[in-house]
């Protein structure tokens, strides 16, 4: 009897099950029930990936990301693939909450499955997937239960290259080069200066490595193990993980306080 | 002796002749049918048979009467069967969820009959364009004609035949499907997928006892990744892809015309396709003079969003082929006749165009 009366009081204006992700909390001292409802919403991320950088090049799209998953300030997981192929035409990279990224991959898997089941010569290209993701992200944000990711979606279909980004609040746009997280601040200025329309594959990789090196030096959640993914008309290839050469013997690093204000 | 036999034969001949006629009329009374042609032929054969032997004539008479009896009996049985079948048909056609013993759903078939009652709609396609045309039918001289072609999206159009109310509802459904897809994926809905949604919707109505099948046939023309397509959705929930098709009343004439020409449609130019559509419409009119007010033509293509052709454009196409037969007629006649016919032709065209403008109600887009 007690349970049912509690439940009745707890639901208030919205007379639906507790499984709903958003309920208006009612002032009735039923703290436990409300906390359960609240904990179903994403309040902060737990295991996060850092930046993803992507550019358009001559034959398609190049995307780079490292393989780290941070648990707060701990670099806990060092083998997380944050870039995945979607169907025949698209490549998705994500930064932010890893579990939400996996959820998105499940949505896209279902989407692609249904698309393939039509078996009619039509297929969803990168533009369609990008817009679908925008709708999903914006919808979740409106329910105050966002997928805590910034997504990079690139692809090639019928010779047309496409590169776009969706943030966790549903902001989406297309550009020739995109980056997430710290990449926006550290990598994009480099790309703005040095990106050209007709980069070759080698030039593109070198440019991306330059960006990733800067991120490795300056982003505390970056690790020195990265992958580069290539998307062309033929398909997607994600490289094996490898490390960048770094140089830490700058004089300023060996003796950082020499010549600093107030030092001797 | 021979003379005696001959006279005796004649008597018997006459007797059997009378007997045969008597039997015939007797049978007629019995069966209340018209004189069976086979009966009558056999009777004539007997009459004029050259075999003089009595016995053979008797046998022939017997054979004839047997055969005619058999034939009439068979005919009676057939008709009884038909009546029975009609009775059965009426037994199993009350609702759509009842099968007939021969495995048919009569309500669905009746719904397809409704499509045949509507005025004609014609569709044809090339690799890059689809043309939809229809005959404008108005309730009366005072009213405007029925809207039978609808734009579903920039790249999809539909022509309907049958219950126009059902058609309107279904085209609204198609428009909302198209818009939803555009909103989610920012790209046009492939027409092949829209047609499957439609067919599934129609199938639902053939399997619920509280619903009835849609009484409208839809010619859906649209673009896909692979080019232009034309589909026909019928009330049964089936859909077929066509190079060219016509539905509605008197559509068989148009279909015959299209069957003759369809192989060339794939590579047709846009103008040829429009001309073929209007010619097909003319076939359904069967004798009525073709005026631009009588038909509505719409076109969509790979670089061309769906739109209706205006009256002048249609009239221009009609003029290209309507003038030629007029001139031929004029040439065949005498000089006076020629002058008259030649004078009459442009006058008629001008009159037709003028009258056409007046006939068209100002409701069309």
UniProtKB/TrEMBL annotation, chain A:
<dbReference type="GO" id="GO:0005634">
    <property type="term" value="C:nucleus"/>
</dbReference>
<dbReference type="InterPro" id="IPR001353">
    <property type="entry name" value="Proteasome_sua/b"/>
</dbReference>
<dbReference type="GO" id="GO:0005839">
    <property type="term" value="C:proteasome core complex"/>
</dbReference>
<dbReference type="InterPro" id="IPR016050">
    <property type="entry name" value="Proteasome_bsu_CS"/>
</dbReference>
<comment type="subunit">
    <text>Component of the 20S core complex of the 26S proteasome. The 26S proteasome is composed of a core protease (CP), known as the 20S proteasome, capped at one or both ends by the 19S regulatory particle (RP/PA700). The 20S proteasome core is composed of 28 subunits that are arranged in four stacked rings, resulting in a barrel-shaped structure. The two end rings are each formed by seven alpha subunits, and the two central rings are each formed by seven beta subunits. The catalytic chamber with the active sites is on the inside of the barrel.</text>
</comment>
<dbReference type="GO" id="GO:0051603">
    <property type="term" value="P:proteolysis involved in protein catabolic process"/>
</dbReference>
<protein>
    <recommendedName>
        <fullName>Proteasome subunit beta</fullName>
    </recommendedName>
</protein>
<dbReference type="InterPro" id="IPR029055">
    <property type="entry name" value="Ntn_hydrolases_N"/>
</dbReference>
<keyword id="KW-0539">Nucleus</keyword>
<keyword id="KW-0963">Cytoplasm</keyword>
<dbReference type="InterPro" id="IPR050115">
    <property type="entry name" value="Proteasome_alpha"/>
</dbReference>
<dbReference type="InterPro" id="IPR016295">
    <property type="entry name" value="Proteasome_beta4"/>
</dbReference>
<keyword id="KW-0647">Proteasome</keyword>
<dbReference type="InterPro" id="IPR023333">
    <property type="entry name" value="Proteasome_suB-type"/>
</dbReference>
<dbReference type="Pfam" id="PF00227">
    <property type="entry name" value="Proteasome"/>
</dbReference>
Automatic annotation (TrEMBL), chain B:
<keyword id="KW-0472">Membrane</keyword>
<feature type="region of interest" description="Disordered">
    <location>
        <begin position="325"/>
        <end position="365"/>
    </location>
</feature>
<dbReference type="InterPro" id="IPR000426">
    <property type="entry name" value="Proteasome_asu_N"/>
</dbReference>
<feature type="transmembrane region" description="Helical">
    <location>
        <begin position="12"/>
        <end position="28"/>
    </location>
</feature>
<dbReference type="GO" id="GO:0005737">
    <property type="term" value="C:cytoplasm"/>
</dbReference>
<keyword id="KW-1133">Transmembrane helix</keyword>
<comment type="subunit">
    <text>Component of the 20S core complex of the 26S proteasome. The 26S proteasome is composed of a core protease (CP), known as the 20S proteasome, capped at one or both ends by the 19S regulatory particle (RP/PA700). The 20S proteasome core is composed of 28 subunits that are arranged in four stacked rings, resulting in a barrel-shaped structure. The two end rings are each formed by seven alpha subunits, and the two central rings are each formed by seven beta subunits. The catalytic chamber with the active sites is on the inside of the barrel.</text>
</comment>
<dbReference type="InterPro" id="IPR001353">
    <property type="entry name" value="Proteasome_sua/b"/>
</dbReference>
<feature type="compositionally biased region" description="Acidic residues">
    <location>
        <begin position="325"/>
        <end position="339"/>
    </location>
</feature>
<dbReference type="GO" id="GO:0006511">
    <property type="term" value="P:ubiquitin-dependent protein catabolic process"/>
</dbReference>
<feature type="domain" description="Proteasome alpha-type subunits">
    <location>
        <begin position="92"/>
        <end position="114"/>
    </location>
</feature>
<comment type="similarity">
    <text>Belongs to the peptidase T1A family.</text>
</comment>
<dbReference type="InterPro" id="IPR050115">
    <property type="entry name" value="Proteasome_alpha"/>
</dbReference>
<dbReference type="InterPro" id="IPR023332">
    <property type="entry name" value="Proteasome_alpha-type"/>
</dbReference>
<keyword id="KW-0812">Transmembrane</keyword>
<dbReference type="GO" id="GO:0019773">
    <property type="term" value="C:proteasome core complex, alpha-subunit complex"/>
</dbReference>
<dbReference type="GO" id="GO:0005634">
    <property type="term" value="C:nucleus"/>
</dbReference>
<keyword id="KW-0647">Proteasome</keyword>
<dbReference type="InterPro" id="IPR029055">
    <property type="entry name" value="Ntn_hydrolases_N"/>
</dbReference>
<dbReference type="Pfam" id="PF00227">
    <property type="entry name" value="Proteasome"/>
</dbReference>
<protein>
    <recommendedName>
        <fullName>Proteasome subunit alpha type-6</fullName>
    </recommendedName>
</protein>
<dbReference type="Pfam" id="PF10584">
    <property type="entry name" value="Proteasome_A_N"/>
</dbReference>
């Amino acid at each position: 009897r007690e349970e049912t009366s509690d439940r009745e009081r707890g639901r208030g204006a919205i007379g639906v099950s507790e499984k709903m992700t958003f309920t208006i909390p009612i002032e009735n001292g039923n703290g436990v029930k409300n906390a359960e409802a609240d904990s179903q919403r994403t309040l902060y991320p737990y295991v996060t990936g850092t930046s993803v950088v992507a550019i358009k090049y001559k034959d398609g799209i190049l995307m780079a990301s490292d393989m780290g998953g941070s648990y707060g300030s701990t670099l806990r997981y060092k083998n997380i693939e944050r870039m995945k192929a979607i169907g025949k035409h698209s490549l998705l990279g994500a930064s932010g909450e890893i579990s939400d990224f996996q959820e998105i991959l499940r949505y896209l898997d279902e989407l692609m499955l249904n698309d393939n089941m039509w078996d009619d010569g039509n297929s969803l290209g990168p533009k369609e997937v990008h817009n679908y993701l925008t709708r999903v992200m914006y919808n979740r944000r409106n329910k105050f239960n966002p997928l805590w990711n910034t997504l990079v979606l690139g692809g090639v279909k019928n010779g047309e290259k496409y590169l776009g980004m969706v943030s966790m609040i549903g902001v989406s746009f297309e550009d020739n080069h995109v980056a997430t997280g710290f990449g926006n601040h550290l990598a994009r200025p480099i790309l703005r200066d040095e990106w050209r329309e007709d980069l070759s594959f080698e030039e593109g990789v070198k440019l991306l490595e330059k960006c990733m090196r800067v991120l490795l030096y300056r982003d505390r959640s970056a690790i020195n193990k990265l992958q580069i993914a290539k998307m062309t008309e033929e398909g997607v290839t994600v490289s094996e993980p490898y490390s960048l050469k770094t140089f830490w013997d700058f004089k300023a690093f060996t003796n950082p306080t020499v010549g600093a204000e107030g030092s001797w | 002796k021979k003379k005696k036999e001959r006279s005796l034969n004649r008597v018997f001949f006459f007797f059997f002749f009378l007997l045969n006629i008597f039997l015939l009329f007797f049978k007629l009374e019995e069966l209340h049918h018209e004189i069976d042609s086979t009966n009558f032929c056999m009777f004539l054969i007997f009459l004029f048979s050259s075999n003089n032997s009595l016995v053979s004539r008797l046998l022939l008479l017997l054979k004839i009467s047997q055969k005619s009896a058999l034939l009439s009996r068979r005919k009676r049985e057939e008709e009884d069967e038909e009546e029975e079948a009609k009775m059965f048909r009426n037994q199993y056609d009350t609702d759509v969820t009842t099968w007939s013993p021969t495995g048919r759903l009569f309500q669905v078939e009746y719904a397809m009959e409704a499509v045949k009652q509507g005025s004609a709609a014609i569709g044809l396609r090339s690799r890059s364009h689809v043309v939809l045309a229809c005959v404008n039918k108005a309730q009366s001289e005072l009213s405007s004609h029925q809207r039978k072609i609808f734009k579903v999206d920039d790249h999809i159009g539909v022509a309907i035949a049958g219950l126009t109310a059902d058609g309107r509802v279904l085209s609204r459904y198609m428009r909302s499907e198209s818009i939803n897809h555009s909103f989610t994926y920012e790209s046009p809905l492939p027409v092949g997928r829209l047609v499957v949604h439609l067919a599934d919707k129609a199938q639902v109505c053939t399997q619920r006892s509280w619903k009835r099948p849609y009484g409208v046939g839809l010619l859906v023309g649209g673009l896909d990744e692979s080019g232009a397509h034309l589909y026909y959705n019928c009330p049964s929930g089936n859909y077929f892809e066509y190079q060219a098709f016509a539905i509605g009343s008197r559509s068989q004439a148009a279909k015959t015309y299209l069957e003759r020409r369809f192989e060339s449609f794939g590579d047709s130019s846009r103008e040829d396709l429009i001309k073929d559509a209007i010619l097909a419409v003319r076939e359904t009119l069967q004798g009525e003079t073709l005026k631009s007010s009588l038909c509505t033509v719409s076109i969509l293509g790979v670089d061309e969003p769906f739109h209706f052709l205006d009256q002048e454009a249609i009239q221009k196409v009609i003029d290209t082929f309507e003038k030629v037969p007029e001139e031929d007629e004029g040439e065949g006649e005498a000089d006076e006749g020629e002058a008259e016919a030649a004078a009459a032709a442009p006058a008629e065209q001008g009159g037709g165009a003028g009258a056409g403008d007046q006939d068209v109600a100002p409701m069309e887009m």
